[in-house]
Amino acid sequence: MSSNHTSENEVKSSLACLGVNPHAEMVYRAMLGHPRWSVRGLAEELRIEEDEVRSGLDELARTALVRASWDAPELVTAVKPSIGLAALIAAQQKDLLERQRKLDEGRSIMADLMVEYDSAQGTQQSGGIEYLPGLDSVRTRIEELSRDVQTEVLALIPRAALSVEGMEASKALDEEILARGVTVRTVYLDSVRNHSTTRQYARWLTGLGGAVRTVPALPMRIIVIDRKVAVLPIDPEESSKGALLLREPSVIAAILVLFEKIWETACPLGTSDQRDDQGLSAQERELLRLLASGMTDEVAGRHLGLSLRSVRRLMSDMMARLEARSRFEAGVRAAERGWI
């Protein structure tokens, strides 16, 4: 006889939800059909060892599904299902109600603690705007929103080089929401193509189903969740100051228009550097526009996510193409050619 035999009774097991293991249920079902069978008879019918039958009977006794026979005390008999199983169901219901009570109590405690947490963090809400001071409160709030996102996440990331710590912290959230079928569209700066770690992260995101594009410059960091909530920096030039969480529909609508306009002109990650009919890349043309507006090389570089050295290298290259010996001459010739 083998304990590996799988009987028809095991296949149709259904009492696990009441705490009865499949082995004990197999014995119980056999006893219901043959209430006076001995341990040996049950073992022969089920084609298992007698010790296994006894083990099943011990489990059934623990769950009060068998009792000593009044007619033959040396035997045990199965308790009628309407009595034995009803008792198990009642016990499960009691346990479920107690767990529900504890969950409700936990939610109430969580709400009280959140008031204390927000007060300590300085989080404030006013007129539909939630103020999130500091990076810790911003990241915590984004994690909360990510767990609840249903359909879509849109993001503008105006940084060429993301920190390794920041990317690792974002990976788990990105992976979880993409696995749930949420659409993720992200726009980075063109200069991200020159930063290997950030570029690898963007490609990893694309590999999971996210869509990534790049543009020469972005106005600020923006995250929009389910087209209902937007997170914007308090100070676009200094993210460490914290962020604002907005829910006003008209404001969200305006942000969505801005995002879609940027998305339409952005270049998908992985495509080659595209140039216009005058041989300029979008990044070069934006650099010329920023410098023509009066920005210094350093400030223009910050807008484009480029180092000062990269800005000067790009300008040197364009001056050579314009055959200009000075910045002033380059500006004149760029205007003549319609570059700016």
Note down, in words, how this protein is organized.
The chain has 340 residues and is an alpha+beta fold. It has 3 domains: 8-79, Winged helix-like DNA-binding domain superfamily/Winged helix DNA-binding domain (Arc Repressor Mutant, subunit A, Orthogonal Bundle); 132-268, Endonuclease, Chain A (2-Layer Sandwich); 282-336, Winged helix-like DNA-binding domain superfamily/Winged helix DNA-binding domain (Arc Repressor Mutant, subunit A, Orthogonal Bundle), CATH 1.10.10.10. The chain has 13 helices and 11 strands. It starts with 7 loop residues before the first helix and ends with a helix.
Largest sheet: 9 strands, mixed
Shape: elongated
Distance between the termini: 90 Å
- Topology as H/E string? HHHHEEHEEHEHEHEEEEHEHHHH
Number of strands: 11
Features:
340 residues; alpha+beta; Arc Repressor Mutant, subunit A; Endonuclease, Chain A; 3 domains; two-stranded antiparallel ribbon; 13 helices; 54% helix; 14% strand; disordered N terminus
Give me the secondary-structure topology:
Elements: H1 8-11, H2 22-33, H3 39-46, H4 50-62, E1 66-68, E2 76-78, H5 81-121, E3 124-126, E4 129-133, H6 134-148, E5 152-157, H7 164-179, E6 183-189, H8 196-207, E7 211-215, E8 222-225, E9 229-233, E10 242-246, H9 249-265, E11 267-268, H10 282-292, H11 297-304, H12 308-322, H13 327-336
Parallel strand pairs: 5-6, 6-7
Antiparallel strand pairs: 1-2, 3-4, 4-10, 5-8, 7-11, 8-9, 9-10
